[in-house]
Write a structure and sequence with these properties.
The complex is a heterodimer of chains A (316) and B (270).
Chain A: E1 5-7, E2 10-12, E3 16-18, E4 40-42, E5 59-62, E6 65-68, H1 77-90, E7 95-99, H2 104-116, E8 122-126, H3 137-140, H4 143-156, E9 161-164, H5 172-181, E10 187-189, E11 193-195, E12 198-199, E13 204-205, E14 212-215, H6 220-233, E15 238-241, H7 247-256, E16 260-263, H8 265-269, H9 273-287, H10 307-315
Parallel strand pairs in A: 3-4, 3-16, 4-7, 7-8, 8-9, 10-15, 15-16
Antiparallel strand pairs in A: 1-2, 5-6, 6-14, 11-14, 12-13
Chain B: E1 3-14, E2 19-25, H1 27-32, E3 38-42, E4 53-56, E5 59-62, E6 68-76, H2 80-87, E7 93-100, E8 112-118, H3 125-134, E9 139-145, H4 154-159, E10 163-168, E11 175-176, H5 180-189, E12 196-201, H6 204-216, E13 221-224, E14 240-244, E15 250-254, E16 261-263
Parallel strand pairs in B: 8-9, 8-12, 9-10, 10-11, 12-13
Antiparallel strand pairs in B: 1-2, 1-7, 2-6, 3-4, 3-7, 5-6, 13-16, 14-15
Helix pairs in contact in B: 5-6
The chains are: A alpha/beta (316), B alpha/beta (270).
Chain lengths: 316, 270
């Protein structure tokens, strides 16, 4: 059974990737997960300098989901390269670095720092964090901004570049197209949905930043739709995510058009989820006699349902 | 190395309308847990509530051969997850991840140990008292609550030879008022030459007052902090607490892996 997937020039042993901001720097999980068994891990978002992020409270639970406003606390690209990357390499992890910036120049500079290091497989460009004021989502919410930052980073690195798109726009697919035209090797989607939770007793927002990003199973159907729309629009690979909590969810994203998937919130609930996801995918492949998992990518059958089709479709 | 087990609820003793002690069949975690460490419990099944909640290991239960067989947790019902913990019936299984976090650093005689607990902050001190007793450390528990009915498990601590100093806000048992008042007096009365370690756990206001009192008297104080926690493993950066840095600045430390036990004088209290 072949679970490997290719994202441009990058081949992953399976499509299961730890999502940025949900797996620390990876080393935190070395005791509970064989890091080399994952398709890849995406680091926490990194700027040039260290950032302290927002004060607590930073998260609040919602029905089937959670809202976070961490504020991209991080150790900065250089410390990551010096202090975390060697251990990740020693443990055989495939490392994708999530690159942040408040200006176009900072994105380029961080990308250079990361590119100069040994053992980075790709750059995920964070143009979609909803929790910081400058940079980030300002690029991700403008087609020109998206094009400009992807072009600039594309020129500055030999590594594959995967812009991570925000769902907080009218038409995500047009942003995927802008990224593709600017030379992106793939797109990651979706980041979290901008959201708000208020304590009615105190009339205070439940996170210190007032608003935050919603993740978890609550957002999954919207994320699947967005991946599907992007698949119709661009040819570059898609790393799909948004509320994946079990193997069926991962397969759903792939069938919608994702070449690989990222898991975030579910890893908080179950840090041992990775083996279960892989086993569930293998069981599905066996049941459906699929030799190569990559075959299912974008295989959703959207033809008008005839009477004959309707039976199985209704079973779900 | 933490493990995740579907731990069977062996018993659920409701101590009051809000507090309960849940016994979980988790022998491997029980054997590995050190005083001050915690577990992450998935109180619900399915997606709501979605996340786990952190609970200090309250007691390690042992069989006749002294092998660890189960843990208990002390819970106060304040939200959806703790409501499910309060209502959990024996036989149910609850996913239990642990042990997690940095434990208390244990002192040796001739140092004495004073434990300061507020409300549900009693939780980490039963195992700590047991470990200190095994070392022959003379131990005192300063324990405050709103009223007498919310001072639990006093006999557990008496049986471990722990001296008790109790306060209630309504004066129904022990001294009336907050626990920091008798702590302050006792610290003032103690010879500076007599070594002493303070251990504190409870509401943030009480912890801050305790840490400040300890600083004023020149005593070290280990505090176990409670934060809203997403994962318990350092992955999510939700449970941060502001700490002083070596360079004179401050930084956000993750309570789950830098703590939950931290040095009281290094925390930036509001």
């Amino acid at each position: 059974m072949d679970l490997s997937v290719t994202i441009g020039s990058l081949t992953l042993k399976n499509p299961l990737i730890a999502a940025s901001g949900c797996f620390g720097y990876g080393v935190e999980y070395a005791d509970v997960v064989d890091l080399s068994s994952l398709g890849a891990i995406v680091s926490k978002g990194l700027f040039l300098k260290e950032r302290e992020g927002h004060p607590a409270p930073r998260i609040v639970e919602t029905p089937a989901g959670m809202l976070n406003a961490i504020g991209l606390q991080g150790i900065g690209a250089r410390r990551f390269v010096d202090e975390k990357l060697p251990e990740l390499r020693a443990r055989g992890a495939t490392v994708i670095v999530n690159v942040c910036g408040t200006t176009l120049d900072e994105y380029v500079e961080v990308s250079r720092v990361v590119s100069d290091a040994e053992g980075v497989a790709a750059i995920e460009l964070n143009i979609s964090c909803p929790n910081i004021k400058e940079g980030g989502i300002q690029f991700g919410c403008s087609l020109h901004g998206t094009f400009d930052v992807v072009s600039a980073v594309r020129k500055a690195t030999r590594l594959p570049v995967f812009p991570k798109l925000t769902p907080n726009v009218t038409d995500v697919a047009s942003f995927a197209r802008a990224a593709e035209e600017a030379g992106a090797d793939a797109v990651s989607l979706v980041n979290t949905f901008l959201a708000m939770v208020i304590d009615v007793e105190t009339r205070r927002p439940k996170v210190s930043n007032v608003v935050g990003g919603l993740s978890g199973p609550a957002i999954r159907p919207i994320a699947v739709r967005m991946v599907y729309e992007c698949r119709q629009t661009v040819k570059i690979p898609i790393l799909g995510m948004g509320g994946i909590a079990d193997a069926r969810d991962a397969l759903e994203f792939m069938i919608a058009g994702a070449d690989a998937v990222q898991i975030g919130t579910a890893n908080f609930v179950d840090p041992f989820i990775w083996d279960k996801l892989r086993a569930g995918i293998e069981a599905y492949m066996e049941r459906h006699q699929i030799a190569r998992l990559a075959e299912i990518v974008g295989s959703v059958d959207t033809r008008a349902q005839t009477a004959g089709h309707r039976g199985p479709a209704l079973q779900t | 190395m933490p493990i995740d087990v579907p731990a069977q609820v062996v018993a659920n003793r409701r101590l009051s309308d809000d507090y309960n002690v849940l016994t979980l069949d988790a022998p491997t975690i029980a054997a590995a847990a050190r005083p001050g460490q915690f577990v992450m419990l998935k109180a619900g099944v399915g997606l709501d509530p979605l996340l786990r909640r952190p609970f200090s290991v309250f007691e390690v239960l042992r069989d006749r051969t002294t092998a660890a067989i189960a843990i208990t947790i002390l819970s106060k019902r304040i939200g959806p997850s703790t409501r499910l913990i309060y209502d959990a019936e024996p036989g149910r299984r609850i996913d239990c991840l642990g042990p997690l976090g940095r434990p208390f650093a244990l002192v040796q005689p001739p140092s004495d140990a004073w434990m300061i607990a507020g409300g549900v902050g009693l939780a980490p001190f039963a195992t700590l008292a047991e470990a200190l007793r095994a070392r022959g450390v003379k131990t005192t528990l300063f324990y405050g609550a709103r009223r007498a009915a919310e001072l639990f498990h006093l006999d557990t601590f008496r049986a471990l030879g722990v001296e008790l100093v109790l306060t209630t806000e309504d004066g129904s048992l022990g001294e009336r008022g907050r626990i920091v008042a008798p702590l302050d007096r006792r610290l003032a009365a103690r010879s500076p030459d007599a070594p002493l370690m303070l251990y504190a756990c409870g509401p943030e206001g009480m912890l801050a007052a305790t840490a400040r009192t300890a600083i004023r008297h020149g005593r070290p104080c280990q505090v176990s902090v409670e934060r809203i926690m997403g994962c318990g493993l350092g992955g999510c950066y939700s449970c941060v607490i502001p700490m002083r840095s070596d360079d004179g600045g401050t930084h956000h430390a993750r309570a789950c892996i830098a703590g939950p036990v931290l040095q009281g004088d290094q925390i930036v209290w509001d």
